[in-house]
Amino acid sequence: MGQPEQTTFWQNLKRLPWTFWGSLVRHGKPDTDRARSQTVFSNLFLHLHPTRTHIRSLRFSATMALGVFTLSLFVIIVVTGVLLMFYYKPSVETAYNSVKDIHYVVPLGRIMRNVHRWAAHLMVVAVLLHMARVFYSAAYKQPRELNWLLGIGLLVTTLALSFTGYLLPWDQLAYWAVTIGANIAGSARELTDAFGITQSVDPGGFTREVMLGSRGVGGEALIRFYALHVMVLPIFMALLLGVHFWRVRKDGGLARPDADVTHAGKGAAPKGSPAVKPEQAPTKTYGLMCVVRDRKPATNLDPADTVPSWPYLMRAEVLIFVASLVVCMVLGLLFDAPLKEAANAAIPENPAKAPWYFLGLQELVSYSAFMGGMVIPGVALLGLALIPYLDREKEPAGVYFSGARGKRIAGYSLVFGVVMATLAVAIPVSYGWLRNWVPDINQIWIILVNPGTLLTLAYMAWSLAVLRTTRSTRMAAIAIFTCFLAGFFVLTYVGSELRGPNWDFYWSKSAWPTH
Amino acid sequence: MSERLKPDPVPRRSFLSIAGLGTLALAGVGALAGMVRLLKPYVYPEPMARFRLGRPDEFPPGTVKVVPERSIYVISEPEGVAVISLVCTHLGCIVAPADKGFDCPCHGSRFDPKGRVLRGPAPRALLWLEVSQAADGSLMVDANREVKPNTWYRG
């Protein structure tokens, strides 16, 4: 029975700075690898990182920095978005003027809005590129299927955030883009109308009215989109992001070929890797790595393959964050976010264009709203989601295109995809389509047989042909993914650059009729 | 006695947990359905779609008049008066009068003067709206009530 230590109130008060610091930081100065690992391990925010990172995961070619770039943009968007919320007033009477105020009156409001918008556009690009990177390096393969699905969820959430944000300025651009978007959501009516059952079964009308809170785009739609944009979707996004990152860790870090894993004492450290002093290597975390799923538990591996995440990984992340911030700032300083005339429900913009990443869809929608706006994107998303479940070949993960054959297939598919998408635009532009040939044709034929559906079927047929010749699901996946990517680019380009008033085809904007 | 000793097909413990989880799931589905239902209002918060068009003698046979603030146009023929909506049946843009009929600025649908689709993605003809007469004799239009094409209103 020892004497309990006598401490008085005053002694405690004097020691307060040290005791507080001790409760905050549980380890000594993080100046050795071990202390840093322990800091990473015991900090909620840092422990999203592994304590040690494989050297290969740090190479630019492995990730092209796209994941962290996307996250950086999301952080920038959240911060600028919260600042914009302090001034933005979501009602029909005030929305437009409050955005105008942000742009012209609020100190630094213009740059905040510009950065918010540029980061949002870049985030769509970054998400798409990140998906392409993960796909081509076969990083979706078992055991990472779930993370691929989460990624698709994040892609859809990103697009939903962009779309809901598009309405908020309540200018002409916003009003008509969202009118079109809402009617696409309600385009199941095209099908029920064709069968004459809209009176009794009207899923299209229900979806649209749930989305808009009314029959047309008005104050109810604005407040709904606002709630989704600033609250529901960001929270959902943050949740998905958390699970996404957590799964990266649980699935054994970034996908990499087995050949890169060298067993203790065997492989030589890759060139330029920093020396690790064995006595500084963490002991505790290696034991824990055993429960992390990988094809092999990461025990008994040469620590020379890995480097401490602090500083090597974190330094890279900070650099990417700073780079994204610089890019957004420069774009925001050079190019203003557009603000057109206040919304006018009687006069549509001509041409009324959706944001650029939906222009490919708008091109498809100009053949059939239901097929182009609902079925084809739905099929594309479903196809994306199924890829890791249908392609279960044991190819080395982390190798782009899975080798030379894949590269060749991707090349052919790119050409095929571009040619087919170009034809899908060129034929209707030059010769018209079914209704020009048979004026009283039933709408069902137009829904079923239009350039969009034919293009989709052509891509599917191409992928099946690749499957038959190569007998490899991975090659078939490369074929269809590349085709859809090519189609997306061609249609987006046509929609944004070659379509003018009345959605007519023009080789350049200077040829648009003046009025 | 032997009856009671027979093992139950579903053990009591499992039955209780299945019942519990099932109830929970059912309640969850109900709550979710309620949340979705809340989003679709009983009454649409929008101005009344029925409005006064004007006196019948303002539209003598032969008149074709666009009323841009209501997004409609009026045609008057010996058979009667008809009001056709200018909202494109494709994706809701407002069609603009062109040489012969109407052009949609958004996706290039084209309609003839009676609203029939000539080309483009519009799935159906422009909507013909219900015309009626108020007590004072002026023509009333209800933009939310569709009538069959070629329904002419004769005062």
Polypeptide structure, described:
- The complex is a heterodimer of chains A (about 525) and B (about 160).
- Chain A is mainly alpha-helical.
- Chain A folds into two domains: about 280 residues, Cytochrome Bc1 Complex, Chain C; about 160 residues, no CATH class.
- Helix content of chain A is about 65%, strand content about 0%.
- Chain A has 21 helices and two strands.
- Chain A has a two-stranded antiparallel sheet.
- Chain A starts with 8 loop residues before the first helix and ends in a 17-residue tail after the last helix.
- About 5% of the residues of chain A have low confidence.
- Chain B folds into two domains: about 35 residues; about 100 residues, Rieske [2Fe-2S] iron-sulphur domain (Rieske Iron-sulfur Protein).
- Chain B is built from two helices and ten strands; from the N terminus they run H-H-E-E-E-E-E-E-E-E-E-E.
- In chain B, the strands form two sheets. A six-stranded antiparallel sheet of chain B has the order 1-10-9-4-3-2, with no helix packed on it. Chain B has a four-stranded antiparallel sheet with strand order 5-6-7-8, with no helix packed on it.
- The relative contact order of chain B is 0.15.
- At the A-B interface, helix 9, helix 10, helix 11, helix 12 and helix 19 of A face strand 8 of B.
Q: Might you state the CATH topology name of the largest domain in chain B?
A: Rieske Iron-sulfur Protein
Helical residues, percent of chain B: 10-25%
Mean pLDDT of chain B: 86
What oligomeric state is this?
Answer: heterodimer
- The fraction of residues assigned to DSSP E strands of chain B is 25-35%
DSSP E strands of chain B, number? 10
Trace the largest sheet of chain A across and list its strands. 1-2
End-to-end Cα distance of chain B: 87 Å
- The count of DSSP E runs of length 2 or more, i.e. the number of strands of chain A, is 2
Structural class of chain B: alpha+beta
Question: From N to C, what is the helix and strand string of chain A?
Answer: HHEHHHHHHHHHHHEHHHHHHHH
What is the CATH top level name of the largest domain in chain A?
Mainly Alpha
